[in-house]
């Protein structure tokens, strides 16, 4: 009987094959121009798969005919017979809506509607039950469309692929234009005036933002109040930078090259190859961006009833060059099991020159310090992922192993020359050399399981282990002015190691009751830390840490007119790092010293957020009000040492409260003009007690961003973005500099309770021209900081000192970038033209149950 079923199925499928028409290119008239259809070919990257089972016995139904039909005329797009295990698999499908027809002797014909769009490229239809002598299965429609920003119950996703002003730049340039995110002149990132945790592809990384090319980024996920599913680290949530990974069928890719004012160059490309069960991708980019910076510090010290003055002027140049390479492979074991392996290597070097002049007591004495140093790094990231989807829709299990290893080295020379009030060299110059090296190892092991419960519920469970080891050696040598020999400086040199271990587990449950949605979860983290200074035989182990419990709750209510209200709560933690804990005093800049505090405690933050979302046909809006209370806020205090020196130490604040309101909206006018705006109004209150002295600070501030994107005739696109930040309290991570005060004496870390950052604004503009067939090539001209207004200015006041600190880096940069895309959305690109033998094979395959057409 099975042979008869097979023969009948082969005949039915043969008829399907005779009429199948896979739309690869549009209808054309003479000269290759679009014909009556007048439409371009849609991307053929859709993937639909599933399994047929008997509704009563639950056994697989083999050799059933599955066909995909056009809605317009029911003509066949493609079809196949199910395999022995009942599975079917369609790849390289175009965007659109189709009817799926399933027929087999003894069963009712099943019609199922499916739609393929940007968000529904890969669809697992699960186990489809064939029932003898029953009514037809209800039609199910799967749809999805991509928007500029989307809001889930616990995160917002900003798609940055159309961000013209960041083309040819780095991740810093991308984040500058993401709503709700603020990036200062040194690349420090804040969200709602607090530091988030930054991930790359959902994992911790030692990469800095200026080491990630903008053209390698797919999207940015902003999670202001993360659920228990996510790491608990980070006061203002998580920023996840998602790198591009192409999955289009066939061979395709892109090459880019750019040039910018002030000796700035970039170039690179990516390629993707996908056919059958394999998807291979690779990309490479190189950036060389010479830039300059300058700054001033004016400080008045009130020491022992005596007043002294310090003025510093710095001029610096930097010549960084870095390369970014990434390659990977996805192997589809079958319809429901995928294994992925990727490897990234980032390599770079920075040559820096700085000239710092210090004037004491309004000209009584002067000194000039010249610093030349070279910094190099290399970063390796290996990631292995496995994903299994069950027949039950939305049920899946995944596991991942992540390994990150990075090294760095630095070599610098300092030449300090004393000067008379007239600027004449006084005495011999003091020469100093320093060199350092360090390495970091990150290992992350993670597994997650998702299981739908009932009709609307969902259970999420997961485990995660994060291990980090860090070592560093910093050696300083002073030149003997008599012999010229360099001698080891034990006071300024140091070495240290530390280990961090985080063991975490979480459980989340979500569901809906009508239009009401809810989600509750609990994350438990055990944090283990140890540090040491090997050369001194010292070890630092905080008191035995207890497991931390981090609950989260999310509630949502949908209303008519595509409206939704959300209320959520989460508890988070920020743990002090080694540099904040180690009781070592950094004398690299004698006038601005730093010292850690081994008695620091972790800070804990409770966040509450209430949001309203509304969608219209051509616009949407998201409004939020929030409150954040932080206990033991990690902060800094600067105190004077003598007449000219400041010592910055880390402390836990007594109190920190922040609350505010945020509004994000996007609208499309006339079908060609997209406008997205974001405004965040907030108030911050902080108080710190040090040496029986209490420092208090409070401030109301606001941040506004607007992005205008206009489609112009002749395939031009114009983009204009503007940002304004009003005066605000300085954060402990604002400003600052590299290890050892690499930017000079004015680069000391500002403090929350003692500092206020002055307001600033800037405007970026970009123009893009698409040309060649199907817009395969483009030219983008972008000008950042059009009015050259972007700078960092800090004012600090305390009973012991007053200071004004100004920094300016090169920010008005004109870039021209060329991009060319190549390839086809067609897996047939690998297949030879049919020869006689090929045709014979094809005829033989008509009877092959596993062959698809």
Automatic annotation (TrEMBL):
Gene3D superfamilies: Carboxypeptidase-like, regulatory domain (2.60.40.1120), TonB-dependent receptor, beta-barrel domain (2.40.170.20), TonB-dependent receptor, plug domain (2.170.130.10)
Keyword Membrane: yes
Keywords: Cell outer membrane, Membrane, Receptor, Signal
Region feature Disordered, mapped onto this chain: 834-853
Presence of the UniProt keyword tRNA processing in the record: no
Chief place where the protein resides: membrane
Endpoints of the signal sequence: 1-20
Location of the TonB-dependent receptor plug domain: 170-238
One annotated GO molecular function: carbohydrate binding
Domain of life: Bacteria
Pfam families documented for this protein: CarbopepD_reg_2 (PF13715), OMP_b-brl_3 (PF14905), Plug (PF07715)
Biased composition (Polar residues): 842-853
GO cellular component terms, A-Z: cell outer membrane
Subcellular location: Cell outer membrane
InterPro entries in the record: Beta-barrel_TonB_sf, Carb-bd-like_fold, OMP_b-brl_3, Plug_dom, Plug_dom_sf
Segments forming domain Outer membrane protein beta-barrel: 388-730, 751-820
Full protein name: TonB-dependent receptor
């Amino acid at each position: 009987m099975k042979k008869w079923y097979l023969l009948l199925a082969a005949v039915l499928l043969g008829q399907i094959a005779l009429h199948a028409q896979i739309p690869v290119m549009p209808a054309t008239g003479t000269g290759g121009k679009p014909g009556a259809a007048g439409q371009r070919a849609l991307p053929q990257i859709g993937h639909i798969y599933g399994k047929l089972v008997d509704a009563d016995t639950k056994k697989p139904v083999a050799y059933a005919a599955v066909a995909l039909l056009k809605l317009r005329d029911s003509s066949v797009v493609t079809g196949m017979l199910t395999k022995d295990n009942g599975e079917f698999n369609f790849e390289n499908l175009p965007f659109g809506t189709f009817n799926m027809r399933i027929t087999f002797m003894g069963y009712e014909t099943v019609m199922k509607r499916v739609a393929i769009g940007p968000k529904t490229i890969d669809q697992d239809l699960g186990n489809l039950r064939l029932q003898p002598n029953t009514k037809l299965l209800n039609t199910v429609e799967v749809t999805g469309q991509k928007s500029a920003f989307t809001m889930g119950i616990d995160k917002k996703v900003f798609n940055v692929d159309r961000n013209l002003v960041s083309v040819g730049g780095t991740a810093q340039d991308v984040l500058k234009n993401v709503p709700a995110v603020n990036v200062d002149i040194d690349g420090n990132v804040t969200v709602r005036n607090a530091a988030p945790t930054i991930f790359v592809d959902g994992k911790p990384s030692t990469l800095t933002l200026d080491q990630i090319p903008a053209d390698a980024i797919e999207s940015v996920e902003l999670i202001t109040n993360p659920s228990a599913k996510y790491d608990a680290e980070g006061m203002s949530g998580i920023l996840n930078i998602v790198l591009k990974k192409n999955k289009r069928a066939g061979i395709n890719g892109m090459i880019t090259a750019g040039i910018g004012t002030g000796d700035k160059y970039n170039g690179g490309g990516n390629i993707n190859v996908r056919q059958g069960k394999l998807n291979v991708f690779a990309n490479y980019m190189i950036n060389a961006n010479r830039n300059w910076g300058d700054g001033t510090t004016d400080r008045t010290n009130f020491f022992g009833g005596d007043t002294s003055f310090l003025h510093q002027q710095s001029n610096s140049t930097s010549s960084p060059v870095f390369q970014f390479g990434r390659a990977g492979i996805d192997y589809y074991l079958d319809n429901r099991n995928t294994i992925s392996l990727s490897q990234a290597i980032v390599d770079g070097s920075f040559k820096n020159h700085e000239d710092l002049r210090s004037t004491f007591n309004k000209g009584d004495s002067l000194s000039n310090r010249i610093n030349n140093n070279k910094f190099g790094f290399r970063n390796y990231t290996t990631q292995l992922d496995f994903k299994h989807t069950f027949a039950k829709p939305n049920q899946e299990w995944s596991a991942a192993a992540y390994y990150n290893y990075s090294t760095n080295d630095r070599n610098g020379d300092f030449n300090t020359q004393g000067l008379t009030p007239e600027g004449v060299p006084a005495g011999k110059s003091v020469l100093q050399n320093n060199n350092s090296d360090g390495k970091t190892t990150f290992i992350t092991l993670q597994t997650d399981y998702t299981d739908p419960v009932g009709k609307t519920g969902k259970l999420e469970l997961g485990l995660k282990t994060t291990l980090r080891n860090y070592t560093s050696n910093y050696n300083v040598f002073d030149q003997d002015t008599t012999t010229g020999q360099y001698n080891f400086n034990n006071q300024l040199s140091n070495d240290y190691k530390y280990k961090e271990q985080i063991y975490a587990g979480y459980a989340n449950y979500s569901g809906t009751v009508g239009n009401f949605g809810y989600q509750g979860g609990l994350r438990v983290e055990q944090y283990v830390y140890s540090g040491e200074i090997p050369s001194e035989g010292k070890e630092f182990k905080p008191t035995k840490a207890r497991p931390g419990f981090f609950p989260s709750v999310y509630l949502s209510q949908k209303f008519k007119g595509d409206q939704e209200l959300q209320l959520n709560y989460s508890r988070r933690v920020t743990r002090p790092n080694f540099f904040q804990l180690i009781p070592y005093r950094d004398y690299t800049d004698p006038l601005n010293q730093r010292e850690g505090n081994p008695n620091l405690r972790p800070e804990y933050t409770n966040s509450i957020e209430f949001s309203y979302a509304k969608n219209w046909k051509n616009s949407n809006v998201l409004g939020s009000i929030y409150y954040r209370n932080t206990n033991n806020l990690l902060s800094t205090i600067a105190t004077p040492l003598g007449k000219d020196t400041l010592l910055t130490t880390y402390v836990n604040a007594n109190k920190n409260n922040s609350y505010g309101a945020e509004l994000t909206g996007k609208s499309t006018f006339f079908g060609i003009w997209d406008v997205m705006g974001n405004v965040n109004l907030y108030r911050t209150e902080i108080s710190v007690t040090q040496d029986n002295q209490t420092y208090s600070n409070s401030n109301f501030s606001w941040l506004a961003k607007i992005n205008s994107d206009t489609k112009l005739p002749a395939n031009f696109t114009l983009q204009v973005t503007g940002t304004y930040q009003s005066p605000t309290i300085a954060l402990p991570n604002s400003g600052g500099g590299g290890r050892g005060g690499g930017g000079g004496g004015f680069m000391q870390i500002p403090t929350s309770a003692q500092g206020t950052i002055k307001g600033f604004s800037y405007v970026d503009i970009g123009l893009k021209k698409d040309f060649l067939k199907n817009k395969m090539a483009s030219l983008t001209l972008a000008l950042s900081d059009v009015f050259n207004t972007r700078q960092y200015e800090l004012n600090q006041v305390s009973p012991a000192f007053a200071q004004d600190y100004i920094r300016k880096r090169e920010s008005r940069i004109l870039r021209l970038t060329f991009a060319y895309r190549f390839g086809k959305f067609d897996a047939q690109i690998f297949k030879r033209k049919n020869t006689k033998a090929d045709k014979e094979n094809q005829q033989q395959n008509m009877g092959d149950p596993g062959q698809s057409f």
